[in-house]
Design the sequence.
C-alpha cells in the first residue's frame, strides 16, 4: 500500500517536474519576449498599472491585468526572469492537469501521468 501511495502521490509530480526542467530549462537563456509580451511591457513601462488596466480593458479582459502587474512588480522587465516564471507556471499547470485526471480516472495512474506530460 505504501509503495502505491508513493508512486501515485509523490513520484508522478516529481516526474512532471523533472521532465519540464529537462525539456524547457535549457532553452531559457536563449528566449526573449514574444510578440504579445511587448504590448504589456510598453503599456506598463509608459503608464504603470493604469496602462495595464487600460490595455486589458480594451482587449476585452478587464480583470486580467493583475497577473502581469504582479509579474512586473516581482520580476521587472528582464526576459530571463519571465521565462523562469513561465516555466514555474507550466509545471504547476501540468501538475494540476495530473490532479484533475487522477480525480477523473483514479484507476489509471500511468495514463494520468502521460496526460499531464503530454499537456506539458
Sequence:
Amino acid at each position: 500500500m505504501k509503495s502505491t501511495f508513493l508512486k501515485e502521490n509523490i513520484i508522478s509530480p516529481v516526474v512532471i517536474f523533472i521532465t519540464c526542467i529537462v525539456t524547457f530549462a535549457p532553452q531559457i537563456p536563449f528566449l526573449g519576449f514574444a510578440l504579445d509580451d511587448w504590448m504589456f511591457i510598453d503599456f506598463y513601462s509608459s503608464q504603470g498599472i493604469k496602462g495595464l488596466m487600460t490595455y486589458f480593458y480594451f482587449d476585452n479582459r478587464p480583470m486580467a491585468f493583475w497577473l502581469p502587474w504582479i509579474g512586473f512588480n516581482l520580476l521587472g522587465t528582464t526576459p530571463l526572469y519571465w521565462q523562469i516564471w513561465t516555466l514555474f507556471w507550466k509545471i504547476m499547470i501540468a501538475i494540476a492537469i495530473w490532479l484533475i485526471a487522477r480525480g477523473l480516472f483514479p484507476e489509471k495512474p500511468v495514463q494520468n501521468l502521460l496526460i499531464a506530460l503530454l499537456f506539458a
Remarks:
- The chain has a mean pLDDT of 87.
- Residues 79-104 form the longest helix (26 residues).
- The chain has six helices and no strands.
- Residues 66 and 79 are 19 Å apart (CA to CA).
